[in-house]
Design a protein that fits this description.
CATH class of the largest domain: Alpha Beta
Structural class: alpha/beta
EC number: 1.1.1.37
Domain Lactate/malate dehydrogenase C-terminal: 171-336
Number of domains: 2
Distance between the termini: 55 Å
Number of strands: 11
Subunit structure: Homodimer.
Strand order of the largest sheet: 3-2-1-4-5-6
Bound molecules: nicotinamide-adenine-dinucleotide, (2S)-2-hydroxybutanedioic acid
Shape: globular
Oligomer: single chain
CATH topology of the largest domain: L-2-Hydroxyisocaproate Dehydrogenase, Chain A, domain 2
Strand content: 15-25%
GO molecular function, one term: L-malate dehydrogenase (NAD+) activity
Binding site for substrate: 105, 111, 143, 177
């Protein structure tokens, strides 16, 4: 075994050992056999905070589970049949439900072009979750996130179990990209960059706040190019994959990071903060019901929603443009469930 492999497996085993003292945490992944689902399942299997991993997909859930279950960490892994009872069993007792189920973009498409297919998929999975595990934290990855999160809220409201503190649109990939892209401009270590990204998860609704990052020396065309790359980073991957889908590996890392933050918070760690798209009071007076900003996470989910803070003139303009689009995307999700309950 190489030095690197020894280090890695040793670390996994040590982390797995220390996990035995923690409270049990069941994590369910719906869409577990997909481009995101498989590496996300792998990363959650390596996470010592997870005690049970429940994998569901309309195809190959048990196969992916059998494969991952051989990894020598403490958690148990089970795959479920694509039936209503399989889905219900998968969800029952979950603390966290991650949903990356749905179709990805092809070149030339916007995330909104996925609405017609993914709205129904997410609605139906949310219905099952509202029934089987209404108290679980629900993490939505499926696009268009600006609309699929409101869809879930409406489904939970219809079921009489809506808790705004436990519903999250996963926008972590925007933060991950922002940190990486800033580090490329500045020649810094991306691990030390933590860029706040607010708004939503699509094009101009993605608003990176570079002015708050300590890099006010990035200005002019350099700043414009950086902001544009963060807003349209998803398109960069869609184009490079040339019809074979969108970001999967970086998204799996981002989803695993966000789930890990929620687990840390629920297992007692204080001061855990992530940017995420939640039911937010910040711009409700302008008709925008959901908004991504820095959110402090606690044992019950959302603990404190941070204000966006001081913005540059350019960021104020970006935020205004974001709010206009976001409002429409959110309304589209709400209207969908009203018309198709
Ligand atoms: P994929 O096609 O590779 O995988 C999707 C999986 O969902 C497939 O295995 C499919 O069988 C499964 N699925 C479909 N309908 C289902 C259902 N009703 N129940 C359970 N499983 C079902 O796609 P992908 O690349 O993994 O992307 C998934 C979604 O994530 C897309 O909508 C994509 O746009 C989105 N995405 C979001 C972000 C983000 O930042 N939030 C990033 C990347 C991708
Ligand atoms: C991303 O940001 O990579 C995802 O939302 C997938 C996409 O369609 O771009």
């Amino acid at each position: 075994m190489s030095f690197f492999a020894r280090q890695m497996f040793g670390q996994v085993q040590r982390r797995a050992f220390s996990a035995t003292a923690r409270q049990p945490s069941k994590v369910a992944i719906l869409g577990a056999a997909g481009g995101i689902g498989q590496p996300l399942s792998l990363l959650m299997k390596l996470n010592p905070r997870v005690s049970q991993l429940a994998l569901y997909d309309i195809k190959l859930g048990p196969g992916v589970a059998a494969d991952i279950s051989h990894i020598n960490t403490n958690s148990t892994v089970k795959g479920y049949d694509p039936t209503p009872s399989g889905l219900k069993e998968c969800l029952k007792g979950s603390e966290i439900i991650l949903i990356p189920a749905g179709v990805p973009r092809k070149p030339g498409m916007t995330r909104d072009d996925l609405f017609n297919t993914n709205a129904t998929i997410v609605r139906d999975l949310a219905k099952a979750a509202a029934q089987a595990a209404p108290e679980a934290k629900l993490l939505i990855i499926s696009n268009p996130v600006n609309s699929t999160v409101p869809i879930c809220a409406e489904v939970y409201k219809n079921a009489g179990v809506y808790n705004p503190k436990t519903l999250f649109g996963v926008t972590t990939l925007d933060v991950v990209r922002a940190s990486r892209f800033v580090s490329e401009v500045k020649g810094t270590d991306p691990a030390n960059e933590n860029i706040t990204v607010v708004g939503g998860h699509s094009g101009i609704t993605i608003v990176p706040l570079i002015s708050q990052s300590g890099h006010s020396d990035i200005t002019g065309e350099k700043l414009d190019a950086l902001v544009n790359r963060i807003q349209f980073g998803g398109d960069e991957v869609v184009k490079a994959k040339d019809g074979a889908g969108s970001a999967t590996l970086s998204m799996a890392m981002a989803g695993a990071r966000f789930a890990e933050s929620l687990l840390k918070a629920s297992q007692g760690e204080k001061g855990v903060v992530e940017c995420t798209f939640v039911d937010s009071p910040l711009y409700k007076d302008q008709g925008v019901e959901f908004f991504a900003s820095k959110v402090e996470l606690g044992p019950d989910g959302v603990q404190k929603i941070h204000e966006v803070g001081k913005l540059s003139k350019q960021e104020e303009q970006m935020l205004e443009a974001c709010l206009g689009d976001l409002k429409k995307n959110i309304q589209k999700g709400i209207d969908f469930v009203k018309a198709n309950p």
